[in-house]
């Protein structure tokens, strides 16, 4: 997801995602003669032009939206029950399979079950947990300004995340402050664009890809300085803002629950 820097009267006022800029323009928070810039743009442009130039970011449930609106709603309810501690992955797999039959979707037995329901359900549950951790981590950004990409689940054929990280960093060039992976560690400031660059969903929190088995862990100020991710006198900057609409969708999915860990299937 592209991060847009916004300036007014020659002074930068913050970094935002596209939907945040669109809503700011609609509400009057941003002005038509404010300017914006994002990585790859040759020069600052008026914000209305920036909005026209960029595409709309994906919905957290867009991976299921091409099938049937009822399926999207079914996934929302399943994620809500899992994250709220009222169900688990195994039960919701069965519920979603029954829903497919009820609305007349007739896939080929296990092919549909394994290749569609599991990845979509796991990805969206992961997004709900990832969003919560992202929000909580930003509230503690002064003490823990960086994070590390780590493996929390094994995979039979794991992706080469070191390569993914290093290739994303090379493409970002000077817009990222993180170094190439060192001794297998992938660490960057929480506001670094590397996090959206490694994500298939354009989001700064995990899961960054379907069925990745990867997650993030906070890195303290002292360790970030020791690793060279930041200088001792640097002040951690706030992370760019998500679209308010996107946050409302995720908050409605999370409800009032506060799970301590991932549910078990």
Describe the structure.
The strands form two sheets. The protein has a four-stranded antiparallel sheet. It folds into three domains: 51 residues, 2-Layer Sandwich (Dna Ligase, domain 1), CATH 3.30.1490; 68 residues, no CATH class; 96 residues, no CATH class. The chain is α+β, with helices and mostly antiparallel strands and 265 residues long. β3 and β4 form a beta hairpin. It is globular, with a radius of gyration of 20 Å. The protein is built from ten helices and seven strands.
How does the SSE layout of this entry go?
Blueprint: E1 3-8, E2 11-17, H1 18-27, E3 35-37, E4 45-46, H2 47-53, H3 62-65, H4 69-83, H5 89-102, H6 109-139, E5 146-151, H7 161-172, E6 186-189, H8 194-197, E7 214-219, H9 221-227, H10 244-254
Antiparallel strand pairs: 1-2, 1-3, 3-4, 5-6, 5-7
């Amino acid at each position: 997801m592209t991060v847009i820097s916004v300036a007014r009267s020659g002074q930068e006022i913050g970094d935002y995602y596209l939907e945040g800029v669109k809503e700011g323009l609609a509400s009057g928070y941003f002005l038509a003669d404010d300017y914006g810039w994002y990585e790859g743009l040759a020069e600052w442009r008026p914000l209305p032009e920036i909005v026209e130039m960029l595409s709309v970011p994906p919905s957290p449930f867009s991976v299921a939206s091409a099938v049937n609106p009822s399926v999207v709603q079914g996934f929302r309810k399943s994620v809500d029950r899992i994250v709220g501690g009222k169900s688990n992955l195994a039960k919701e797999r069965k519920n979603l399979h029954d829903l497919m039959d009820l609305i007349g979707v007739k896939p080929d037995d296990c092919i549909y079950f394994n290749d569609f329901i599991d990845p979509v359900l796991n990805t969206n549950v992961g997004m709900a947990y990832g969003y919560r951790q992202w929000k909580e981590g930003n509230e503690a950004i002064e003490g823990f300004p960086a994070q590390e990409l780590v493996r929390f689940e094994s995979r039979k054929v794991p992706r080469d995340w070191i390569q993914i990280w290093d290739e994303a960093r090379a493409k970002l060039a000077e817009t990222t402050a993180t170094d190439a992976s060192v001794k297998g560690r992938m660490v960057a400031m929480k506001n670094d664009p590397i996090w959206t660059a490694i994500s298939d969903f354009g989001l700064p929190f995990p899961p960054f890809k379907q069925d990745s088995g990867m997650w993030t862990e906070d890195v303290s100020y002292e360790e970030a300085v020791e690793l060279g991710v930041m200088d001792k006198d640097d002040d951690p900057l706030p992370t760019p803002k998500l679209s308010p609409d996107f946050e409302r969708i995720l908050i409605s999915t999370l409800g009032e629950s506060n799970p301590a860990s991932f549910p078990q299937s």
